[in-house]
Each structure stands twice: as C-alpha cells, then as structure tokens.
Amino acid sequence: MSKREQEQLGREQFVTKDSGEIHRLSILIPLYHSEQTIEALVDRVITELRPHFDALELVLVNDGSTDNTHACALQSVARHPGIVKYIRLMRNFGEHNAVMCGLHYVTGDCVAIIDDDFQNPPAEILKLVEKSREGYDVVYSYYTEKCHSWFRNLGSRFNDWVATKLLKKPKDLYLSSFKVISAPLIRTIIDYQGPYPYIDGIILRSTTMIGRQLCRHEERATGRSNYTLVKLLRLWLNMFTGFSILPLRIASIIGIGMAGVAILLTGFFIISHQVGGIIFQQPIPPGWASIIVAVTFFAGLQLCVLGMIGEYLGRLFLTVNRSPQFIVRDVYGIKTSQEES
Predict the structure, then answer these.
(1) What pLDDT score was predicted for residue 145?
(2) Model-level pTM?
(3) What fold, for 3-226+323-340?
C-alpha cells in the first residue's frame, strides 16, 4: 500500500462526533530501542484502558530501531489482533516525524500520545481524556515533579522559554509529549507537508482551545533517555526555522546594532588618532583601526546572518522538492483497501 493510500485510509476512518463524546480512543506510541518495555507497556495499556471505551486501538511506530524492537512489536500485534497496529519506518526520522506518521493511522475520536518508557502511567490517560471532554482540542499533561535527568530538565526549560518567545505559547503551558489530541485537530496536523514537523508548533498555530491536566510522572522503567544534545538541538532548530521568522528579525536587529558599534569605534579611533594616540600610549599604525573594525564585527556578523538565511533556504528547498517526513517500510495489523473489499 502506497503512502498516499495509507494516508487516505487513515483520513476515511476518522469518527466524527459531537464535542465531548469520546467512545473510541487511539493511543500512539513512538518506539526507539524499546525492546525492554514495549510488550509490557502494550499489555498494561490494554488491560487498564479497554474497559473504559467502546473501542481501543494502539498504534506503534518504530522509528528505525536497531535493537529487537521490531520483533517485540510483532509479538504485540500477534497477541492483540484487531487492537494493535504497527508501522515500521525505513530509518530513524526523529520522534516528531514518527508521531506524524502514526497520526495518519489513528481512527479514534481522540488520540493519546505516550512515550515507551513507563514514565507516564497508562491510567493517567483517563485524566487527559476526561479533561478533553470539556471541549479542548488538545490537553497537555504537566507535573509537580518531573523524574528526568538534570540534562533533560534543563533542555525542557530552555525549550519552554524558546516556545514562549517564538510561538507565543502561554507561560503556564508545559509542552509535554504526553497529551491527548482531538480528531479535528489531528486532521489539521497531518495536512502539514514540511519535512521537519514540530507537532507542538503546529498545534499552537492551529488552536487556542488548549487544556492542561496534572498527571503523575515516574522514574524510567529501564535504561536512559534517548534524548541527546544533538537531538535537542535538532528539535530547537525545527522550532526556530519551521514556525517563526523571529531569528531573521533578530539577525537584522543585531546587524543594525553592530553597524552602530562600528560607527562608534570609528569615531573613537579618529579621536584617538587626533590626540596623538594618548589612549593607547603610542600612535596607532595607519590602517590598523579600520581593519580591526571591519574584521571583528562584520565578517563574523555576515557569516552568522548568511548561515541563518541559508538554513531557511535549505529547508525551503527540501520542502519544495518534497523531502519525506517519513518512509514506511512495513505495516502490520492494518487492513488495506483491497483486503477490506
């Protein structure tokens, strides 16, 4: 089944109900090196949540794992036929790309997105769903105490600050990966075609009906977080260049400021030359001041601004050339249109 057919199938299966009516729940779990947790997580989610909904589905997206995650996910599909869907990507595209892929396959009235590390107890999904019944398009979790490493907490704080400045995020809103999204908003999200999706950025520019719900946060069941400095930097870069032109405006302001500083330095060196180099205790060699002013300020500034413009142009080039958000290798537990007929 082609990607276009898969996307169309996902759109056709959406269930439209009045606001507040949630009878079918989809749960989306992006996977990356999840062999030690995914089977137990799937079993626990189904056991704890299935009695509360008319229909429950789990959508697993393997984001290019190189361990035994694929085999473990297949075991879950075989153990829970008709409930677990499994999509295997061709390579590692990143968490937000994997989530974007999974959103094309969910069919419920809303979808809960949860990580594979057990830090969010599955039963907490019920709190988010109950809050979403108040008419919110999305409900984010927040915590009184987060059980992340100091590095992850620091990265989260910086991400929160950047999102507040760039995306006009409400200051009291925490952009957690653990959230519930309504079907209408999902349709808006999957319409985004850029190769570098930032899910929370799409949400913030699409709706103001955003709720928040206090939830428990626990220690990881096993292993360490897959987030590294490189992945966090990539996430911030997606936020910077994909959903705001503020960095370009800042570059323009810095350029004007540096030009002003250069003018002041030029005046300073002229005055120093006129008074015989008293400031430097010796005459300034001819041409030295102009070289220092030009090289110190404008060379670095030009490289910075050109690099930023190049990043925007590069991403525009990739978008125009339809660089893929994700590439699906295999799907399991999902009936194709031919099989249904």
Answers:
(1) 76
(2) 0.74
(3) Spore Coat Polysaccharide Biosynthesis Protein SpsA; Chain A (3.90.550)
